[in-house]
Amino acid sequence: MKRTIDVKHVGPNGHVRSLIDELIDRLAGKLRHFPEDSISVHVLFEENGSHKLYRTALTCHLPGHMAAAHEESRDAGATIRKAFAEVERQIERQHALLRREHLRKHSPKRQIKAILPEGAE
Predict the structure, then answer these.
(1) For the whole model, what pTM was predicted?
(2) Mean pLDDT, the chain, as a whole number?
(3) Which of 12, 13, 66, 71 could tie 83 with a disulfide, CB 3.0–4.6 Å?
């Protein structure tokens, strides 16, 4: 997995880099069925010093799909976590489409039969 982490206008803060690395490792665990050289993750984290706003932009390139998220907040950790959560949600949705789960919806009649005991209709 190719990783690119850009941190702009932030002082020496090891906590931000360690949090990003931890979340990328968690994301890599969810993407382990893809070939490792076909995945790339780009994280851009920046601070606007005059307003104390933090921005996180995250892009994950997968074979045949791209997931992206952008978050902005006054809490650095929250913006990073929200961006990664959004990308994970997009990846899970893509996996569901590949597994064709959207076609497996059961009819209401079938669901009622599963709940009712035998002989009662």
Answers:
(1) 0.78
(2) 85
(3) 71
DSSP H helices in the chain:
14-30, 76-98, 108-115
> 92 is in which domain, residue-wise?
2-115
- At which residue do the structure tokens 């497996």 appear? 104
pLDDT value at 110 more than 80: no
- Domain CATH code at residue 100: 3.30.160.100
Contact criterion met (CB below 8 Å) for 87 and 67? yes
Over residues 70-83, the pLDDT tens digits come to 999 999 899 999 99
Per the listing, tokens 């997995």 go with 1
* Residue 94 to residue 76: CA distance in whole angstroms: 28
Angle at alpha carbon of residue 69, lines to 64 and 75, rounded to 5°: 155
In the chain, how many domains are there? 1
Residue 69: name the closest of 91, 49, 39 by CA: 91
